[in-house]
Amino acid sequence: MKNKILLKTINVLFLLIGGFSASHAQQRPNVIYIYADDLGYGDLSCYGATKLHTPNLDKLAKSGIRFTNAHATSATCTPSRFALMTGKYPWRKTGTGILPGNAALIIPTDKTTLPQVFKRAGYATAIVGKWHLGLGDSVNKNWNGEIKPGPNEVGFDYSFIFPATADRVPTVFLENHRVVASDGNDPIAVDYSKKIGNDPTGKEHPELLKLKSSPGQGHDNTIVNGIGRIGYMSGGYRARWVDEEVSATFLFKVEQFVTDHRQKPFFLYYALTEPHVPRMPATRFKGTSGLGYRGDDILQLDWTIGQLMKTLELNGMTKNTLIIFTSDNGPVLDDGYQDGAVTQLSGHTPWGPMRGGKYSALEAGTRVPFIVNWPAQVKPGVSDALFSQMDILASVAHLLNQKVPNGDAPDSEDHLEALLGKSKQGRSTLIEQGSADPTAIIRGDWKYIKPHPGVALMKDVGIESGNSPAPQLYNLKDDIGEKKNLADAYPDKVKELDQLLKNEISKNTSAIRH
Ligand code: NG6
Ligand code: CA
Fold first, then answer.
1. Beta strand 174-175 with 178-179: parallel, antiparallel or unpaired?
2. Which terminus of the chain, N or C, has fewer Cβ atoms within 10 Å?
């Protein structure tokens, strides 16, 4: 009898320990954050696209959660990425607008960052892809030596990046602190104010361009691979990337990192370059979408995700890998090159059912595809929780039992339950930033855009800015397309949200922790 009781107790103990370690193991998934560049809400078939078919992302969405109200903080790249890394609204800090390719690092090295949360929890961390948050201490850096501080100084054990955007010099990769394939006999120099070196520019030699620059939008400085760039560079011929190979190069590094880290949990920030300009897909994708290079780029992106999923599968990692797939800002067609995005659009609607796009305070500026997939923990579904990419930091800190020190990541809210689909309740309030000031606020179903000077239509890119001299108030639940301005009908709501926006903007964040 006694023995039986003892056996039972031991059994229960084992069950408890087993259960604990299993759930503990599941609490520590690999995490891959995949960030597309300028991908719109309506660009994927799982978000309603009919002219483009994205089977791999559709599959990810079907077996995970497809969010319908998730946002980048901003409608351009640098600020959205700043917020993702720091958990802080970018407009709280000056100098967080779109950075030139020679900018200094803008992420503080003494505050908690997203990768640091993982590092503190014992994870291996890596970034592969577009950085666009500055490098080094100053604009005048030596591209031929060690370049720091950069990603490795803000929490990434390993980095394989390009510095800014694909349309900005220098058109080179960096692995950790050094330019890949740099050559002491052919030093790289970069200048954003004047021409340097003897490379032809797009302005002087438009006949050399394989991708025409759009008139009046720049992109006519140094020509690299037949494409005019923003900024001037000289030297580094061996190190210059081939545009058609950029995506595959990143994928190769990602697959290498994943397979090398089968034994230890990792956080991988995979920052894709598609479908940002200059769109230059691999040759085998050219012409495959029928929508020009922008469409081809999206098909390439989707294929890339399929490859990554295969790699995870082969390594037995699918179940316990938490994947978040999203985009840094809304879509744009003509962002500086005549690549068929406009002329071959063929009825495709990258902005989905919304107004605006990249650079805009209207919904398509920041509301982006957002897919969460973690077979071990997350049940498939659709969520309309209001979620900001900025909240990933605090949510992941919760998941990994990490404390975020006071004053760090002040705007990052812990919405782990919403992120994992266990609750439909996300943020109550979110501020949206178009191309400059934060002018819009969402609270519940309401969205308010404060009166703001500036053009209503950004002609070059063909996108509505959201600017208006009059206040705008929309009920997003009934009117996601922001068609019916209700400001006159609800003056009290306008007043309340205007005040809330002001309060949020001027809030002292030095001691906040949620
Ligand atoms: C803009 C560029 C645009 C793109 C963008 C950055 C001009 C006229 N336009 O300034 O081509 O590079 O910056 O895009 O220069 S982002 O997605 O990285 O924010
Ligand atoms: Ca972008």
1. antiparallel
2. N
Q: Both 113 and 216 in a single domain?
A: no
- Closest listed ligand to the CA of 328: 2
**Distances 249 to 129, 179, 181, 309 between C-alpha atoms, Å:** 9, 14, 14, 17
| Domain containing residue 467 | 430-506
* 211 lies in some domain: yes
282 neighbors 247 (Cβ within 8 angstroms): yes
pLDDT tens digits for 248-258?
999 999 999 99
Q: Which residue has the tokens 């002491």?
A: 184
- How many residues are listed for the chain in this entry? 514
Residue 50 Cα to ligand 2 midpoint, Å, equals 23
Pocket of ligand 1 (CB under 6 A): 37-38, 76-77, 98, 132, 165, 167, 217-218, 230, 276-277, 329, 335-336
Which of 378, 407, 423 marks a domain boundary? Answer: 423
Q: What is the pLDDT of residue 19?
A: 41
Cα(172) to centroid of ligand 1, in Å? 18
Residue 216, pLDDT score? 86
Which residue ranges of the chain lie beneath pLDDT 50? 1-2, 6-7, 10-26, 514
Nearest CA to ligand 1 atom 7: 217
pLDDT digits 0-9 by tens, 1-48: 445 554 455 444 444 444 444 444 445 999 999 999 999 999 999 999
Closest residue CA from atom 2 of ligand 1? 335
Give the span between the Cα atoms of 29 and 399, in whole angstroms: 10
Q: State the Cα–Cα distance between residues 283 and 288, nearest whole angstrom.
A: 10
Q: How far is the CA of 264 from the centre of ligand 1 (A)?
A: 37
At 18 the pLDDT is 41
Output the residue whose Cα is nearest ligand 1's atom 13: 98
* CATH number, domain with residue 477: 3.30.1120.10
